[in-house]
Design brief:
By secondary structure, the protein is an alpha/beta fold. The protein has 5 helices and 7 strands. It is 31% helix and 24% strand. The radius of gyration is 14 Å and the shape is globular.
Length: 143
C-alpha cells in the first residue's frame, strides 16, 4: 500500500473523536489546512508536549488531527487525553478504514493538506524519527 502522493486529493472521512463527538474532514476542508498524523501505537510524553505546543501556536491556520488504531478503551483514552490537555481531534480508527484511505500500513505517517484538500506533504517515518521538525514542515506546507 502506498501513501497518497503530494498533489493528490485527500480523501474525506468521518470518525470518532476521542475527545467527544465526530470528526468530519469536510467540515474543516475549505476553512484551513490540516496536518494529520497517524500516531505511534505507544504514547511518548515528549511528543505529546511538542504536539500540544505546535497546535496552540498554529491553530488559527491549521487543524491538527491525530489518527490512532490502538487504545486500551475509549473511556480510558478519553480520560488520558483530557488529563494531558489535548485540544486537537484524536480520531479512533479501530477498523483502520482511515489508515486504508490514506495508504498507511504502519504508523508513523504525517500528511500536510491545504485548505483545498490537496496533499502538500506526505512522509512515512520510523517511530524514533517522529520529531517536531517533521510536523513543522507539514504545517508550513498546509498553510
Amino acid at each position: 500500500m502506498a501513501l497518497l502522493e503530494v498533489g493528490s486529493a485527500a480523501p474525506a472521512f468521518k470518525g470518532m473523536n476521542l475527545l467527544g463527538g465526530e470528526f468530519d474532514f469536510d467540515a474543516i476542508k475549505g476553512a484551513k489546512g490540516i496536518v494529520m498524523t497517524f500516531s505511534p501505537d505507544q504514547i511518548n510524553p515528549a511528543q505529546i508536549s511538542w504536539a500540544k505546543n505546535l497546535y496552540e501556536k498554529n491553530k488559527a491556520d491549521i487543524e491538527m488531527v491525530s489518527v490512532t488504531r490502538k487504545i486500551p478503551s475509549v473511556t480510558m483514552a478519553k480520560a488520558f487525553l483530557m488529563q494531558l490537555g489535548i485540544k486537537f481531534p484524536v480520531v479512533y480508527d479501530q477498523k483502520q478504514q482511515v489508515f486504508g484511505l490514506y495508504g498507511v500500513e504502519t504508523p508513523v505517517v504525517i500528511y500536510g493538506i491545504n485548505k483545498d484538500g490537496v496533499v502538500t506533504y506526505a512522509a512515512q517515518l520510523e517511530v524514533k524519527d517522529f520529531k517536531q521538525a517533521a510536523v513543522e514542515e507539514a504545517i508550513t506546507t498546509a498553510k
